[in-house]
Automatic annotation (TrEMBL), chain A:
<dbReference type="InterPro" id="IPR001457">
    <property type="entry name" value="NADH_UbQ/plastoQ_OxRdtase_su6"/>
</dbReference>
<feature type="transmembrane region" description="Helical">
    <location>
        <begin position="43"/>
        <end position="60"/>
    </location>
</feature>
<keyword id="KW-0472">Membrane</keyword>
<feature type="transmembrane region" description="Helical">
    <location>
        <begin position="17"/>
        <end position="36"/>
    </location>
</feature>
<keyword id="KW-0812">Transmembrane</keyword>
Automatic annotation (TrEMBL), chain B:
<keyword id="KW-0812">Transmembrane</keyword>
<feature type="transmembrane region" description="Helical">
    <location>
        <begin position="60"/>
        <end position="83"/>
    </location>
</feature>
<dbReference type="Pfam" id="PF00420">
    <property type="entry name" value="Oxidored_q2"/>
</dbReference>
<keyword id="KW-1133">Transmembrane helix</keyword>
<dbReference type="InterPro" id="IPR039428">
    <property type="entry name" value="NUOK/Mnh_C1-like"/>
</dbReference>
UniProtKB/TrEMBL annotation, chain D:
<feature type="transmembrane region" description="Helical">
    <location>
        <begin position="29"/>
        <end position="51"/>
    </location>
</feature>
<feature type="transmembrane region" description="Helical">
    <location>
        <begin position="214"/>
        <end position="232"/>
    </location>
</feature>
<dbReference type="InterPro" id="IPR003918">
    <property type="entry name" value="NADH_UbQ_OxRdtase"/>
</dbReference>
<feature type="domain" description="NADH:quinone oxidoreductase/Mrp antiporter transmembrane">
    <location>
        <begin position="131"/>
        <end position="423"/>
    </location>
</feature>
<keyword id="KW-0472">Membrane</keyword>
Automatic annotation (TrEMBL), chain E:
<keyword id="KW-1133">Transmembrane helix</keyword>
<dbReference type="Pfam" id="PF00361">
    <property type="entry name" value="Proton_antipo_M"/>
</dbReference>
<feature type="transmembrane region" description="Helical">
    <location>
        <begin position="80"/>
        <end position="98"/>
    </location>
</feature>
<feature type="transmembrane region" description="Helical">
    <location>
        <begin position="181"/>
        <end position="206"/>
    </location>
</feature>
<dbReference type="GO" id="GO:0008137">
    <property type="term" value="F:NADH dehydrogenase (ubiquinone) activity"/>
</dbReference>
Length: 263, 99, 629, 502, 505
């Protein structure tokens, strides 16, 4: 790894200091991603890696990229990750025990092999030319230089990327968008429906969950005057899913402290 | 300061990302590890850009970010779909198709 | 050489008869036997015509040939379908067609109750045609066609009543053992072509003087092998006894008079080879000597009249082979004995058939006895044949057999003494067992079962017997009068030099008659003076037992060839199944097994797939690492 | 008739006509198929008549550009060898159609499909022998497998699909090895003056002996599987056991000949030196095949398997004749191919009739057929006699030529092979005895004899067997120049008689 | 530094632009056209733009230019051939995609939920597949004509992302379908990370991201080749992943099985053309002079791929998985074309790709026809006796299988022959021998299916062959005709390919 040393860097020493402080941090953070149980923690560590990378970009005369890295990547993309994590369950945690036989040793061997071999290879590499540095290229400013390339040489991929963005949007729509397949009934129709139903008992609306019970969570059924649970007070989906709690524990009459704890 | 150090760093990050894909089970974490690999590649691009003294590398890195963003959208959409169907974000649970 | 256009009719007529009879099927049932007989007879007439023509020509111009067409011609291997009728073949032609016609006539009556009689005549005609081809072919390959043709006819006729499994087996056995002999003939032809470049008699004869002795010896030995097969000589003799399964006329024609003598024909025909290959010639003599004793010994113990006669045939052919093996001096005597034997043995077989005809197809002589009174004609004809085979002067056998014995004694040195003694001994044993046959069958008390009503055979049957009996009486005298046959054949064979005269002819005759007398006397003592049991006694010497089992020939063949062969077959069948096909299937299963195994890679877990990719990448990097190191 | 292409097209037209017949009228379908095959046979005979015997060059040559990119032509032309084999194929075809009149019933598919397959196969049979372009040959060589595969698998009996698969995989494997060799030839031709598949041009290629040996093996293994030669034979008994008799006739009688034909036409012509190198080994394999096939035939309990093993023995003879490198061996082998077609046809057809009447192919189930069905029994017997090469039957001439031809150069091989003729007597006579002779056993009493159609079908086969046995000259005159040409090209002359060394 | 406005040659880019335009129209159709009219509108738009693009490709067939898009895109003979192949394959695939039975009624609904049932009842359709298809096709068109690493990467993603999505849209067995989407996506992203990493090293090595620049660097390099080798290796991982070469193949059986069959057909056929097209270009132009470094690697991978694919296919019980492994084996065969590195190899690869693609679509089209009440039946055991029930469908499938097996008189044979002979010509004999042997193994499982269909008695379990829709019939018949025609009379196509197939550099 010989001729890659930059003779040009005027920020040589400060850069080295920065590098040797941040690089271990970055690696540690990245490594941490593998070790922490909770996905959220991984996400945070990932964000820190990205920010560190942004610093490295800036340190390497890639100002524009550094900013984009923070604004777009860390700011938007990682937030998207976090958002989805919230959706999936923010406190979901991964067991780190390996369930697939033999995979972990393979992974570790492969990792060590990969890293070791790559490092060893890099140390062997020569380019046959000395490093140039970006002083000349960034003469008119990094952003301007990139723009120059982006809008002339790479205008075609730049255009095509737009198609990619549309694809992404369309894809998200397809997978996530619940189309309304019929017009939502109007209030009028709903009330007509209620009154024309089999029984007038529900004409005034269904009982709310938790009524007369000691707990008013959505999965606790209301209690009828006789103390029995009113099944229609709980959302049908919850019931179908078997998430409806046994109302007996929440009857008003009996004081049962343990039930609350259980819940 | 040797620019090569950035390359070593990049390799390390890439390796960690690759291993993360193999060892982690949460689909989102797996995906983040892939992002880590992409970032490692970006770092390599930026470093080489500096070594080579031209901005093409940075442009590639820029494109990578855009493409990665698109990928994230699609990927997360798929993961969410799976999650909704299976109530699980573990990639191991999705193993109906085998042999 | 004289050519003729009519030789082919000799063969074509009976062949045509066979084809018509086979193709016509049941439609020919009514007239098939007549057609068959006519065809044979007309072939005989053609033969007589040819003889008359031949007699009209000078000694050297007697052979005639007819080229029919070019049969096989590849490179230098050129074989024409061509016929050669010379002094030797004409003897055979007349014997075959003459005796053949008689037997056709006999069979009309003998087979009259068999509803497949037409088929029988078809086979007989086929046989006549094939046998004629055998003796008329001008090259070994043409001979080979007839050779196998008579084998086929023999097979068909032995197995004529193949609904009986034992008969079917007998026919198969005959064919297979003959094939072994045929293989010898194939080898002989191959060697001949490889070393001489031709396979015609004429061609080889021309080249014989500048062909190596080794090659000639090889050819000779192979021809001998062929002869042993066809002529039931040691060691390929075992089929003949079983061949008696065929209808008796068949035994008379094929297994006594004609086909079995083909070996003698082959050796005499190949005289130019044997004369130039002393080793082969010596082997011929040895085979003949062994067989003549072998057959005679078997004959002493057989209770089945046909098998006893068959053993006798084997023994008599042994004489002929021995005679033929003695070189130029012996050929003519061998042929003479062949001809006389053709008469008397055919006559006796027909007599045996006549007996069987009257005895409900009983063949066990121990169930005969005193038939003289019931079948006088049969007794008379059989008796004449008996006297002929014993060599009692002036019956036919006396002339022919004594000549062979004499020649054997005179062949010189120790060899001559041994051979002479063997032939003498054979003559004695022959007298013994033939007398035994006579006594058991025709004299003594009747031993047959209640329901059997012996009676004389009809005219059509005894007439041929009578004709043959006349032949048995007179043929020897006629053929040897003024050395008629010897002189007739002489142009075909090499001049033979002087040979020492160990014993004078009169001495030989005396010795022979003495041996015969001893044999007859023993037989009288043993079978005429004491009661003959109608069931073969078991308390007999071990030699008798062995002789009854044909001197263990079948056991030997079974133990040495058949069973190992069967085992080998079974082993090979299993090997094919298990090893060769098993290997093929194994390859298939290996592929499937490894497929199933490798399928396990697809565990369904996306992480293991990623690991696979990672490992792949690591391997690539490792390869690079190695390459750049 | 002087266009091979037209001859090849005739059966195709016929198959179109067959396809056009209404489904209900099965008899019409069969009649159309029969008529087509008869016309083709007649056309072939007409062609044979106008064939110039003494001309060793290819005749009736036609050449159309097919895939010019690869230098592939649709090139056909025949010499004596090819003519004889085409003649055999096209004469056998109507016989098979007539003999197997009812074979197509009870198959998986309709009668029409059966005859379409047969006719398509006939086209390919002509093409495979007529091709003078190696690529064309290969294409037909492989494509032929498909109709046969469906004929076995669709209309056979017993383990038909397994047997069909075994047959196909085996053959494909060999074919692929040949493909590798063909590719190598093609590439080399490109290096030496332009890509071509012309047989003549390819035979002029310069190549190292190692290359030549490998390429030879590629071809030879394919042909040895096809022929089949020990130890690559195990597909044949299975296939023959399962196929209908008609299919078996085409399979053993014609398709397998492609193997031995290929050895002459391709192995010897393209790789003369390698052929010489491998001759000792191949001769040993051939001799093993002869003896081994005979022993295995003796040991079989199933009639069809038995016939299959006899064929293995016979193919041993053919191969031996080819590699004996003498004119007798060569001509004999070629004639053997022709004769074997008919004698196997006779065996399979009659055997097939016996089996279909009895409902079993186990030899032990038969007994005493001669009394019950004399004509059938006779036909079988004659077929058997032909198979054991009885003189007077056609196979004798060829077998003897092979033996003589081999003996002059390789006496030991010839001697061992001659033992095969004794074994042949056993493997024919044992089934003859068991099935035709002996008392008529239960189950055989009421078998019906051959009907008129069957008699008409078998009669020409037996007639040809006997006629060629007595008068092979017309065929030999066609074969000899071709054989001599091949031998001469290889630089061989027949060994001179060894006389005069005294 | 003055900014000069970029010049784009729109004629040369028009096939891609037409498709992108069509896709955008499709997106707009989603927004503005009523549900009832959407399917037919989308289908027309899609087919229209595909056909138009094909016409456009035909028009530019003789162009040779690297300047179409500021050097990002190269249009030459192979480009035209590959694009045309992709378009033809796409058109017949779209006929299959038009089968509404194959796609979920509402992707966002939970499998088995009330919502899904409702969507099914109302006949809702995910018509977004059409624009997604167009985007994918556009990406595929761009992939083999890319002339720099950026465009290559963007095209790779552009063809992949829609496919990830489409894989998850099956109507039946939706969990499996979604799983296949997840697997495809995760592994695809994983491999593209490798791809990108490799690109970085190539850039580091050559100081250029254009193929021409890389080639120049390869030709006249000053340093050692470590960066080049790493770059080639990682870039290859990405490309080999796309073509499904062992050990980067693992996604394909699962995804082939899980994805809706029309999508499987589309991606199996078209992706292969695109990916191999790109591979051919980059190996034949940029890496050609570093041949020593990558031919051994590709040779080993090709051999493993053929043998592995063939062996494992034997053990498969599911027709789609079997075809997936068959496609893996074919990837191995196709790699020999890359290894050949000569004009014959290029021509052969293009022919093979086209022939294989068409046959594959045909094969999967047949798979869509065999169904029971719960949708497609892919269990091979239930294909027993298909030949009895529907002889024509079974015969067609048998024809496709025979073509896969490389039996003469089918396109597969000509393909195999030409590609092997090209490889042999360049001295890669080991690959040819391995190819020939694995062809023999492969023949085994193709034939087994034929046995199942024709020689096994049907089991009455409700499996039946639906009467194909007219569009599906068109696909099957067209594929069959092409498969046979290219087998019997390939000369015109071969000639056409031969006149065009030269990479400009």
């Amino acid at each position: 790894m010989i001729e890659l040393a930059l003779a040009v860097g005027q920020t040589q020493t400060p850069e080295a200091v920065m590098f040797w402080i941040l690089a271990p941090l970055t690696v540690a953070a990245a490594f941490g991603m593998l070790l922490v149980k909770k996905a959220v923690h991984s996400a945070i560590l990932m964000a820190s890696v990205m920010i560190n990378l942004a610093i490295f970009y800036i340190a390497q005369d890639a100002l524009f990229l550094g900013i984009v890295q923070i604004v777009v990547y860390t700011g938007a993309v990682m937030m998207l990750f976090l958002f989805i994590l919230m959706l999936v369950g923010v406190d979901s945690s991964d067991s780190l025990t390996e369930t697939i036989t033999g995979l972990r040793p393979i992974a570790i061997t492969a990792a060590v092999g990969f890293g070791g071999l790559m490092v060893s290879l890099l140390s062997r590499a020569t380019l046959g030319r000395s490093a140039v540095g970006l002083q000349v290229a960034n003469e008119n400013g990094n952003v301007k230089g990139i723009a120059q390339l982006l809008f002339s040489t790479y205008v075609w991929p730049f255009e095509v990327v737009s198609a990619l963005l549309i694809t992404a949007a369309l894809g998200a729509m397809v997978l996530a968008h619940h189309q309304r397949l019929q017009t939502r009934p109007t209030q009028r129709e709903l009330s007509t429906e209620r009154f024309r139903g089999i029984s007038l008992a529900n004409a005034a609306g269904l009982p709310a969950p938790g009524v007369f019970a000691r707990h008013n969570a959505v999965d606790v059924p209301a209690l009828l005057p006789d103390g029995s649970p009113a099944a229609n007070s709980v959302n049908a989906t919850l019931e179908a899913r078997g998430d409806m709690l046994n109302s007996g524990a929440f009857e008003l009459g009996k004081i049962d402290t343990s039930a609350g704890e259980e819940k | 300061m040797d620019a090569a150090n950035y390359l070593y760093l990049s390799v390390l990050l890439f390796t960690i990302g690759a291993v993360g894909v193999v060892v982690r089970r949460n689909a989102i974490v797996v995906f983040m590890c892939i992002e880590l690999m992409l970032n490692a590649a970006n770092l390599a691009f930026v470093t080489f850009s500096r070594i080579n003294g031209d901005l093409n590398g940075q442009v590639v890195a820029f494109f990578t970010m855009v493409v990665a963003a698109c990928e994230v959208v699609v990927g997360l959409a798929i993961i969410v779909t799976i999650y909704r169907s299976r109530r699980s974000a573990s990639v191991d649970d999705a193993s109906l198709l085998k042999r | 050489m004289t050519t003729s256009n009519s030789l082919v009719y000799l063969i074509a007529l009976p062949l045509l008869g066979a084809i018509i009879l086979i193709l016509a099927g049941r439609r020919a049932d009514k007239w098939g036997h007549i057609l068959g007989t006519l065809m044979s007879a007309s072939s005989f007439v053609v033969g007589l015509y040819q003889l008359s023509q031949m007699l009209g020509r000078s000694n050297q111009a007697r052979p005639v040939t007819q080229k029919l067409f070019e049969w096989i011609s590849v490179g230098t291997f050129k074989v024409d379908a061509a016929l050669l009728l010379d002094q030797l073949s004409i003897c055979f032609v007349l014997l075959i067609t003459g005796v053949g016609t008689l037997i056709h006539i006999y069979s009309i009556s003998y087979m009259s109750h068999d509803h497949d009689r037409r088929r029988f005549f078809a086979y007989l005609n086929l046989f006549i045609a094939a046998m004629l081809l055998l003796v008329l072919g001008n090259s070994y390959l043409n001979l080979y066609v007839g050779w196998e043709g008579v084998g086929l006819a023999s097979y068909l006729l032995i197995g004529f009543w193949n609904q009986k499994p034992a008969y079917a087996t007998a026919s198969k056995k005959a064919f297979v053992m003959n094939r072994i002999g045929d293989m010898g003939l194939s080898f002989a032809i191959m060697i001949a072509f490889a070393s001489v470049g031709t396979v015609s008699f004429e061609g080889i004869k021309e080249h014989v003087h500048h062909t190596s002795t080794g090659a000639l010896t090889a050819i000779g030995i192979m021809l001998l092998v062929a002869a042993t097969g066809k002529s039931a000589q040691f060691p390929l003799q075992a089929w003949l006894g079983d061949a008696m399964a065929g209808p008796t006329p068949v035994s008379a024609l094929i297994h006594a008079a004609t086909m079995v003598t083909a070996g003698v024909y082959l050796i005499t025909r190949s005289s130019f080879i044997f004369d130039a290959a002393p080793t082969a010639q010596l082997l011929v003599v040895i085979v003949g000597a062994i067989t003549l004793l072998f057959g005679a010994l078997i004959g002493t113990a057989k209770d089945d009249i046909k098998k006893a006669l068959a053993a006798s045939t084997m023994s008599q052919i042994g004489y002929m082979i021995l005679g033929a093996g003695l070189g130029p001096v012996g050929y003519a005597f061998a042929i003479m004995h062949l001809l006389t034997h053709g008469f008397f043995k055919a006559g006796m077989f027909l007599g045996a058939g006549s007996v069987m005809h009257g005895m409900n197809d009983e063949v066990n002589m121990r169930k005969y006895g005193a038939l003289r009174k019931f079948m006088p004609i049969t007794f008379a004809t059989f008796g004449l044949g008996y006297l002929a085979i014993l060599g009692v002067p002036p019956f036919a056998g006396f002339y022919s057999k004594d000549m062979i014995i004499e020649t054997a004694f005179n062949s010189g040195g120790t060899k001559g003494i041994i051979l002479g003694s063997v032939t003498l001994l054979g003559a004695g044993i022959t007298a013994f067992y033939m007398t035994r046959v006579m006594i058991l069958t025709f004299t003594g008390k009747s031993r047959w079962d209640e329901e059997v009503h012996p009676h004389e055979s009809p005219l059509l049957m005894w007439l041929p017997m009578a004709v043959l009996a006349i032949g048995s009486v007179s043929s020897g005298f006629l053929l040897s009068r003024g050395d008629a046959l010897v002189n007739w054949l002489a142009p075909l064979f090499e001049e033979h030099g002087e040979h020492s005269e160990l014993l004078k002819p009169i001495v030989v005759s005396g010795l022979a008659l003495m041996m015969v007398a001893i044999g007859v006397a023993i037989a009288f003592l043993k079978y005429s003076r004491q009661e003959v049991a109608s069931v073969a006694p078991e308390d007999v010497s071990v030699f008798t037992k062995i002789a009854r089992q044909d001197l263990m020939q079948d056991r030997f063949n079974e133990a040495v060839f058949m069973r190992p062969g069967q085992h080998l077959t079974q082993v090979l069948v299993k090997t094919d199944e298990a090893v060769i096909d098993g290997a093929v299937r194994g390859v298939g299963q290996m592929a499937m097994g490894s497929g199933a195994l490798l399928r396990g890679v697809q565990s369904g877990f996306v992480r293991s797939y990623a690991a696979l990719i990672l490992v792949g990448a690591v391997l690539l990097i490792a390869a690079i690492w190695v390459v750049t190191n | 008739m002087n266009s091979l292409t037209l001859l090849m097209l005739l059966p195709i037209f016929g198959s179109v006509a067959v396809a056009a017949t209404p489904k209900a009228k099965e008899t019409l379908t069969k009649q159309v198929a029969l008529a087509t095959t008869l016309i083709v046979a007649a056309a072939t005979i007409a062609m044979a008549v106008s064939f110039q015997r003494d001309n060793v060059d290819l005749q009736f040559v036609e050449k159309y550009s097919w895939i010019p990119t690869f230098g592939i032509n649709f090139a056909v032309g025949i010499d004596g060898l090819a003519l004889v084999l085409i003649l055999m194929s096209t004469i056998l075809a109507p016989i098979v159609v007539l003999a197997g009149w009812n074979e197509s019933h009870g198959g998986r598919w309709s009668v029409k499909v059966f005859y379409i397959l047969i006719l398509v196969l006939e086209t390919m049979m002509i093409g495979v022998f007529a091709a003078t372009d190696v690529f064309l040959f290969y294409v037909i060589f492989e494509a032929m497998l498909i109709p046969v595969y469906f004929l076995i698998g669709g209309y056979g009996s017993g383990q038909r699909s397994a047997a069909a698969v075994k047959f196909l995989i085996y053959s494909l494997f060999g074919g692929l090895l040949m493909l590798a060799s063909i590719i190598a030839l093609y590439v080399m031709s490109g290096d030496q003056g332009g890509h071509t598949f012309d047989l003549q041009a390819l035979s002029q290629l310069q190549m190292s002996s190692t290359t030549q040996n490998f390429l030879f093996l590629g071809f030879f293994i394919a042909f040895a599987i096809k022929a089949p030669l020990w130890p690559l034979h195990t597909w044949l008994p299975d296939a023959a056991e399962s196929a209908t008799p008609g299919t078996s006739v085409l399979l053993l009688g014609v398709l397998d000949k492609v193997g031995t034909f290929g050895m002459i036409r391709y192995c010897l012509t393209l790789f003369p030196d390698a052929s010489k190198t491998f001759t000792p080994m191949i001769l040993i394999l051939a001799v093993i095949s002869i003896v081994y096939g005979a022993f295995l035939a003796i040991g079989q309990r199933d009639l069809k398997r038995l016939i299959a093993f006899t064929s293995i023995s016979h193919f041993g003879f053919i191969t031996m004749g080819i590699f004996a490198m003498t004119s007798q061996g060569h001509s004999g082998a070629t004639l053997y191919m022709f004769n074997h077609g008919f004698s196997t046809a006779a065996l399979f057809l009659v055997g097939g009739w016996m089996i279909s009447r009895r409902g079993s192919s186990t030899i032990a189930d038969f007994g005493g057929l001669q009394r019950v069905t004399p004509v059938m029994a006779w036909s079988f017997f004659l077929a058997g006699m032909s198979s054991l090469a009885l003189p007077g039957m056609s196979s004798f001439v060829s077998e003897f030529l092979v033996l003589v031809g081999t003996f002059t150069r390789y006496p030991v091989h010839a001697v061992i092979a001659t033992f095969g003729i004794v074994l042949a007597a056993l493997y024919i006579l044992i089934p003859v005895q068991k099935a035709l002779h002996g008392p008529t056993t239960a189950g055989n009493e009421n078998l019906s004899d051959l009907n008129l159609r069957e008699k008409i079908a078998i009669a020409p086969v037996i007639a040809i067997i006997i006629a060629i046995g007595f008068y092979p000259a017309p065929l030999l005159k066609v074969i000899n120049p071709a054989s001599a040409h091949v031998i001469a090209q290889l630089g061989f002359t027949d060994p001179a008689p060894t006389n005069g060394d005294k | 530094m003055e900014f000069s406005a970029p010049v784009l040659n729109y004629t040369l880019l028009s096939p891609m632009l037409i498709l992108l335009g069509g896709a955008l129209i499709g997106v707009l159709v989603e927004a503005f056209v009523s549900k009832a009219l959407r399917p037919i509108t989308q289908l027309s738009v899609t087919l229209g733009s595909l056909v138009l693009a094909l016409v456009q490709v035909w028009k530019i067939r003789n162009e040779q230019s690297t300047g179409a898009a500021m050097g990002s895109v190269v249009i030459d003979g192979p480009a035209v051939l590959l694009q045309a192949s992709i378009l033809i394959i796409s058109i017949i695939s779209v006929f299959l995609i038009a089968d509404t039975e194959q796609f979920t009624a509402l992707a966002a609904s939970l499998p088995g939920s009330e919502e899904e049932r409702h969507a099914l009842q109302t006949g809702n359709q995910v018509t977004e597949v059409y624009p997604l298809t167009l985007f994918a096709v556009a990406g595929m068109l761009l992939f083999p004509v890319s002339n720099d690493l950026i465009t290559l990467f963007v095209a790779l993603e552009m063809l992949s992302l829609p496919l990830y999505l489409m894989a998850g849209l099956s109507r039946r067995r939706r969990l499996a379908s979604q799983e296949s989407a997840l697997k495809y996506f995760l592994l695809g992203a994983f491999s593209s990370a490798f791809f990108l990493f490799g690109a970085a090293f190539l850039y580091g090595y050559s100081a250029s991201i254009t193929f021409a620049g890389i080639r120049d660097a390869v030709v006249g390099s000053g340093g050692n080749d470590v960066f080049l080798l790493i770059g080639i290796a990682f870039l290859s991982v990405g490309l080999l992943f796309k073509v499904g070469a062992v050990p980067f193949h693992a996604w394909s059986p699962d995804v082939y099985q899980g994805a809706p069959t029309p999508v499987t057909a589309f991606m199996a056929a078209a992706t292969k053309v695109a990916a191999f097209g790109a591979m051919l270009r980059i190996y034949y132009t940029s890496f050609a002079n570093a041949q020593w470094s990558w031919t051994p690697m590709l040779t080993i991978i090709a051999i493993i791929t053929m043998v592995f694919g063939s062996l494992v296919a034997i053990a498969q019980r599911d027709v789609k998985r079997m075809l997936a492994y068959s496609s893996i084996a074919h990837a191995g065969f196709l790699l020999t074309g890359v290894i050949a590195l000569n004009k014959a190899g290029l021509e052969a690869s293009i022919f093979y790709l086209f022939a294989y693609g068409i046959t594959t679509v045909g094969g999967f089209a047949i798979v869509t026809l065999v169904r029971d009440s719960a949708g497609e039946v892919t269990d091979l055991n239930r294909w027993k006796g298909l030949g009895k029930r529907s002889p024509w469908v079974a015969t067609a499938f048998a024809g496709f299988l025979l073509s896969f097996a490389g039996i003469p008189l089918t396109s597969g044979f000509i393909g195999k022959f030409s590609i092997f002979s090209a490889a042999y010509e360049s001295g890669a004999k080991s690959v040819v021998i391995a190819g020939v042997l694995s062809s023999a193994i492969a023949a085994f499982f193709y034939i087994r299916v034929i046995v199942l269909m024709f020689f096994t008695d049907p089991v009455e379990d409700g499996t039946s062959v639906v009467i194909p829709s007219s569009l599906t019939s068109v696909t099957v018949i067209f594929s069959m005709i092409v498969t046979i025609a290219l087998g019997v009379f390939p000369a015109p196509v071969l000639n056409f390919i031969s006149t065009l197939a030269t990479f400009i550099r």
